[in-house]
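Aim 2 progress. For ATPase AAA-type core domain-containing protein, the working sequence is reproduced below.
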Amino acid sequence: MRVAGMCSCIRVWKRCYLLYGQSGTRKSSFIAAAANLLSYDVYYLNLSQITDADELNSLLIQTMSKSLIAVEDLDRYVSDSRSSSRINSSCLLNFMDRLLNSQDERISIFTMNSKDGIDLALLRPGRIDMHIHFPLCNFASFKNLSSNYLGVKEHKLNSVKNL
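Predicted structure tokens for this construct:
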């Protein structure tokens, strides 16, 4: 029975994130932690081992519902013409659109070192919902982390300015 004004369709949850920052800022660790927290399976797609768009789309079909699809170092494949991968911006745009149009609950996370020189069509809202910068940890960040996660509010090192 349908209720007037009510949609009988099911809305599935999909989000796409971009994590960017220098190497060593723990972007990959964040991906693993997010998947663990949500109890999602993680699928790491290594674009350097994918030969063409058909293979990339085939891999997407093999993923299950409630999964996190991670594509690391995206900037290597879309900004470097010397890349040995056959994956290009057009192929990635089609892949991202298929992710968004799939009927399963999926989260996709792309990582890159820098957004400089990247085709804006790849980064636009609707393809990538949120851009999160991962800066290197400085002393102020360390103090914040130690306060939030270890409960350390005051410490003798807090007065040291040049660490």
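The chain has one domain: 14-136. This observation will guide construct design in the next reporting period.
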